[in-house]
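User: Here's a chain of 411 residues. Predict its fold as tokens.
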Amino acid sequence: MTLAVATAAWKPLVSLGFTVALLAGQLSLALPAMYANHWAIYLGSFIALGFTLWTAPPRMRYVTAAANLVFVALMTYLMLSWRYGGGVGWFLPMYYGDRPMFLRYGWQLFALLLLIAAACAAAGLLLALYQERGSLFRARELDRNSLQEAEIDLIVEQERTRIARDLHDVLAHSLAVIAAQADGTRYLSKDQPKAVLNALDTIARSARSALVDAQRVIEGVRDDGLVTPQPRLSDIPALIESMQRGSLKIHPSESGAPVDLSTGQQVAVFRIVQECLTNALKHGGRGTDVRLHFDWSGPGLTLHVASEIAPDGLEHAADTAVPRTGRGLPGMRERAHLAGGWLTAGPDGESFRVTVFIPYGTRDLRASEEAAGAEPGDTVSAAPGAEPELVLPSGGLALPAEATAKADHHG
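Assistant: Prediction complete.
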């Protein structure tokens, strides 16, 4: 019984096995009969029952309770039968055999042992309910804290979204006005000194670059405040491969020497290519031929995308040229404009053609600054009568600045 109590909370089946071994040993006379005042030893089985009901899973509780019901019957038989014991101290001995003993005292002893077992079982169940109640309280408190944190995160996210939207609107309007005013003043003030024209050109380009970078940061902010990796030109081959797996027949080509674009311009080119391929799959269907050409030979990157139009989709393709705020072609035009270039799109015979121009030239002010001994970023006046040139970063040809002005004018 000591071993049965010791293993009840750890191994309920082992605990039942010890009780079965005791009762089986007494029934087979392998163990000597107990004296009349030793009957309380059997209470160890009921104490083990209480521990099992406290700690065991529901199925094991039912098994233990049923087993103890059988144990109570066997204990009653062992305690009252003259073959196995000396009776119970408070019952008068009877010398007429087991039958009169069981008829007179059997139900009384069985009910007493069953009542003791029920009391131990009730204590175990109460402890289990108390422990479960504490777990429920802790779980409810945890859920309440989680819900409160989720509400706070939702409020913060809504506020972050509102601030990002307002900030984007303010920056987009202000920087676009600055770039437009600087370009307009530069085009209308050809008789101004070169230093003024260079300053206006720097203002316009800086405003466009700041607008592109601000939009990229605002769109790339995650919930934890970090910026997600932005796509680059090197990611376009993987994009083409994935779209080809979607049953598009893409024919990429390239001419000229590639030039490094700014981060914002690379994002704009990638997103425009992605949108063009998506539209080709959506409007042309599976198996649509798409010709994709990158032309690096001019003062900027010229991108040509031409996709077939299904015979029943010509009318729909014409409708796609109608501007829709924030989606499709208007979104691509906005990205191209923010990158300093322009975009045209529309049906061309049996194809839908998209042409994008992204300038990558910058004014060669750094050489002038170094020649004048000024720090980078200071305003430097150009030499009188000198024509400002557009220098390609990869050692390309130097073109007059008029080419850039015409490209910006188209944008």
